[in-house]
Specification:
Keywords: Isomerase, Signal. With 302 residues, this protein is mainly β. The protein has a single domain, classed as Beta-galactosidase, Chain A, domain 5 (Distorted Sandwich), CATH 2.70.98. Helices cover 4% and strands 42% of the residues. The strands form 3 sheets. A 9-stranded antiparallel β-sheet has the order 6-7-8-9-21-18-17-12-15, with no helix packed on it. Strands 5, 10, 11, 13, 14, 16, 19 and 20 form an 8-stranded antiparallel β-sheet that branches. A 4-stranded antiparallel β-sheet has the order 1-2-3-4, with no helix packed on it. Bound molecules: 6-O-phosphono-alpha-D-glucopyranose.
């Protein structure tokens, strides 16, 4: 008989998820929860105090390594898209991360709440395609008020080696009732790179972004706060970030969605990817140096 520590539901539970993949569930008393797969350090679910799911997860998501999981919050590291020699979006999203409960870098800000600490280090195989001894620490916190916080710390652990350079994104699939009604606020007047036009630089002239077809822009040097309004669900998802200057806004639209095998029919309507990122100015770390990023999600009634 295992010793029972928690009389109530354990705030941090490790169970087997889809296909037996290890999953960590964080819960708070008021009913909020977060689910994280060790495969990819991939958050697949976040529910607020009202028990509403805020993240989109495809009905056809494939939980089978090395396929990345379609939906939730994939970690894009050390390369965004095809901006380098690695496979698109790097490899962190299709590696098995480990629990890192005993090493808390002082530099990562601790918030009140339940959290899990995850770690990714390169295998010998990884070093063949990206020859840099990095340590990626990720603390995923669920606050007492049901907010989700992702705190990242990347270290160049190759103490007598070379500097390395990376790009990064939290590829967040936010759940929305209808993509054509969603409003993204906080990106007015900013320059962006249009991924659909060879990343040519343009300027956003709208105050509020609405999406009616395939959309794939990298907004540059964005403010710390971005809001995603869902009028049908009468709620706003608030994104606050530090160390992540860029924001990718992506939706494949109807035609492109049909070519994505792990996306169900019509499911493109039910998400908008709003990705806090560091892309335009890649991050370079000398041996021993660390980089930090912080992302916080909360909800508000409209
Ligand atoms: O299908 P994936 O490799 O997960 O990439 C999905 C999408 O990620 C980002 O949002 C890029 O800006 C898009 O160009 C890409 O299509």
């Amino acid at each position: 008989e295992p010793v029972q520590f928690c009389k109530k539901k354990c705030p941090v539970e490790v169970t087997k998820g889809v296909n037996g993949l290890e999953k960590v569930t964080l819960t708070q008393n008021k009913g909020s929860s977060v689910e994280v797969y060790m495969y990819g350090a991939h958050v697949t679910s976040w529910k607020n105090d009202q028990g509403e799911e805020l993240l989109f997860l495809s009905n056809k998501a494939i939980f089978s390594p090395p396929k990345p999981i379609r939906g939730g919050i994939p970690i894009v590291f050390p390369q965004f898209s095809n901006l380098g020699p690695l496979p698109s979006h790097g490899f962190a999203r299709n590696r098995l991360w480990v629990r890192d409960d005993y090493h808390h870098p002082d530099t990562v800000r601790v918030a009140d709440g339940v959290f899990v600490d995850l770690l990714l280090k390169p295998t010998e195989e990884d070093l063949k395609i990206w020859p840099h001894r990095f340590e990626f620490r990720l603390r995923i916190t669920l606050t007492p008020r049901g907010e989700l916080i992702m705190a990242s710390c990347v270290k160049n652990a190759d103490t007598d080696g070379q500097p390395f350079t990376f790009t990064f994104a939290h590829h967040t699939y936010l759940s929305v009732s209808d993509i054509s009604k969603v409003e993204v606020k906080g990106l007015a007047k900013l320059d962006y790179l249009d991924n659909l036009q060879n990343r040519t630089r343009q300027t956003e002239n709208r105050d509020t972004i609405t999406i009616n077809s395939q959309f794939d822009n990298i907004y540059l040097s964005t403010p710390k706060k971005i809001e995603v309004l869902d009028p049908e669900k009468k709620r706003t998802i608030v994104i606050q970030k530090e160390g992540l200057p860029d924001v990718v806004v992506w939706n494949p639209g109807e035609e492109k969605a049909k070519t994505i095998e792990d996306l169900g029919e019509g499911e493109y309507k039910n998400f908008v990817a709003v990705e806090a990122a560091a892309i335009e100015k890649p991050v370079t770390l000398k041996p021993g140096e660390e980089w930090e990023g912080r992302l916080e999600f909360s909800t508000r009634r409209l």
